[in-house]
Amino acid sequence: MDVKLDRNDRTDLYEQVAAEIRRSIADGEALPGDRLPPARDLAAVLDVNTNTVLRALRLLRDEGLLEFRRGRGISVAGVPERGAVLQRTRELVAFARQQGYSTQELIDMIVAVP
């Protein structure tokens, strides 16, 4: 996985790391099921703090792109499109809750959509 960071860019380093890993997955360099190197190793290669890499990895996990397994490390779980759908789903759930709808009511609405 070829990750390039631009320290002159105003984008946070963890977001740059996440974007590069996301790109690697989208380009097929890292496929579902592939394991990523440990965060400590990625941090050393990128010359950033391990916490920066961990923050990027957690972001990608929350997007549904990575899966953390105790004792097995971090592996690719999905493709960016799935991550985008998960992000929009989270936004929809938050919006529905804000409007007073329960999760089940939201599910019923989604099922009813043609």
TrEMBL record:
This is GntR family transcriptional regulator. It comes from the Bacteria. InterPro entries: HTH_trans_reg/aminotransferase, Tscrpt_reg_HTH_GntR, WH-like_DNA-bd_sf, WH_DNA-bd_sf. Keywords: DNA-binding, Pyridoxal phosphate, Transcription, Transcription regulation. Pfam families: GntR. Residues 11-79 form the HTH gntR-type domain. SMART domains: HTH_GNTR. PANTHER family: HTH-TYPE TRANSCRIPTIONAL REGULATORY PROTEIN GABR. GO terms for molecular function: DNA binding; DNA-binding transcription factor activity. SUPFAM superfamilies: Winged helix' DNA-binding domain.
